[in-house]
Amino acid sequence: MLAALAGETRSRPPFWLMRQAGRYLPEYRELRAKAGSFLDLCYNPDFAVEVTLQPLRRYGMDAAILFSDILVVPHALGQPLAYLEGEGPKLDPIRSAAELSRLSRDRFHQTLEPVYETVRRLTTAIPANASPDTTLIGFAGAPWTIACYMVEGGGSKEYAHVKRWAYGDPAGFARLIDLLVEVTADYLCAQIEAGAEVVQLFDSWAGVLPIGPFRRWVIEPTRRIVALVKARHPDTPIIGFPRGAGHAYQDYVADSGVDAVGLDTTVSPLWAARNLQTRLPVQGNLDPILLATGGKALCEGAAEILEAFCDRPYVFNLGHGVIQTTPPEHVGALADQIRRWPERG
């Protein structure tokens, strides 16, 4: 994983999967039931370490991603957060600059200390449960995506509240983004100092913005976070994942400063190989529904992506996270196919 992110082309690509530790695994569901709430699962290092390790024991991925959630950042800033069964996350929305006074950094790192402890424990738990070459990935949500949740109060289809604030009061909205840039950089640095070897910025809702606002609220905050993290940890690779960016991926790659870019499902592998992979390593982008489908469709879909990307630095992944209905044996079949790749099937 680290070699690929450093620009080396491997005989077979390293692989990991977004949401590789999650509800599709029976052992995860069992532990989730013991934990109580989802936040209790995230904030209990015993549970979070175990969940992180579960897919490694089954499939031997080349990287483990810390088990946590992007919304621990607004929660650590004091925004009430709950996860409702069947509804997803719910936050008390913040919809104007005047309401930013409800947020505070005073207990930010104290609240997130269990996450840092999980990272510290994983630095010894991963070599004991997987290959010693397995890379530990930390992560955070990018400011635009976190702001979407904070302003909308949860998921959204139209993103009307957050866009109205960003368009109607850009100076006031910039205060929220500035705060998120600073605390997100601190959060990623704390994960690196605890032992994360790579970090990824998830900008899950980047694609809902037109190109001008995309540059202002996606690319520029990412560039600032990368600069802040690199000032303290210049050798730690940073992967950006601006989901839904379309052709704006080119601007993101050119101007954000990330070391590698994650591709969503909609990006053509051939286009990305010509326009992005010539500039930096890429990661992605199998459709999670193909993984859930399995069989010939999965095998052909994975082969197409491997053929497109394997001649340059590349990390195999999905175009989004593993979905809940994915049979675990399909993940095993994909792992076997990737490992056999030099044999071309």
Concise structural overview:
By secondary structure, this protein is of the alpha/beta class. It is built from 15 helices and nine strands. Helix content is 51%, strand content 12%.
Q: What does this protein structure show overall?
A:
There is one protein chain. The chain is an alpha/beta fold and 345 residues long. Helix content is 51%, strand content 12%. It has helices at residues 2-5, 26-35, 38-43, 45-59, 72-76, 108-129, 143-152, 160-168, 170-194, 211-232, 249-255, 269-275, 288-293, 295-309, 328-339, and strands spanning 63-65, 81-84, 88-91, 135-141, 198-203, 238-242, 260-262, 282-286, 314-318. The strands form 2 sheets. It has a 7-stranded parallel sheet with strand order 1-4-5-6-7-8-9. A two-stranded antiparallel sheet has the order 2-3. α7 (143-152) crosses α9 (170-194) and α14 runs parallel beside α15. The protein is globular, with a radius of gyration of 19 Å. The two termini are 22 Å apart. The mean pLDDT is 97.
Write the layout of secondary structure elements.
Layout: H1 2-5, H2 26-35, H3 38-43, H4 45-59, E1 63-65, H5 72-76, E2 81-84, E3 88-91, H6 108-129, E4 135-141, H7 143-152, H8 160-168, H9 170-194, E5 198-203, H10 211-232, E6 238-242, H11 249-255, E7 260-262, H12 269-275, E8 282-286, H13 288-293, H14 295-309, E9 314-318, H15 328-339
Parallel strand pairs: 1-4, 4-5, 5-6, 6-7, 7-8, 8-9
Antiparallel strand pairs: 2-3
Helix pairs in contact: 4-6, 6-9, 7-9, 8-9, 9-10, 14-15
